[in-house]
Here is the input.
Amino acid sequence: MGYAGYAPGHRVAEQKTPLERALDSVRNHETLDVVEKLTRNVCRDPNDEKYRRIRSSSATIKRLVFDDENALSVMLALGWRFEEGEREMTLSRDARTTMADVRAIDAARTSLRRRLEEEMHARIRERARAKDPAVQALREQMEADRGERSAREPVTEGSRAVERTSGRVVTASDVGASGSSGC
Here is the structure.
């Protein structure tokens, strides 16, 4: 692996595609499942017209795709277009969906699962902290300390050196620990 000339600690900013940006806004696993199934069907059999048309007459499709603005933005990013007003969507012949699109949807589902788990763990931790009397006492003490510090007068002088030794200062060479063998 070669060196690309980047300074240590610097990362190259990832450029997300319009599809990936649209997928990041979806907050429902079921929606991602349906969009993935629709995309996978088109990828498997791109010439079958039944996979290139969806209708809002299906209650599940209506609820998860047509009634969700974020899902609609994903469908539009995939190349789907509205037909017959807003009751039907079709994918034109020139719009090509690939397995890369399916993988992007799967990655979005994994990312969503992680985000939701992290949010759940954060809520659990916060509830535990709120119930812990030791943590509550510590928070109260911190607030009291903040109030005390703000009530003090401001510091107007710098610090001064204070002589602390009363006797002779001993150096490392005085006790034979200077690191040389004495030769």
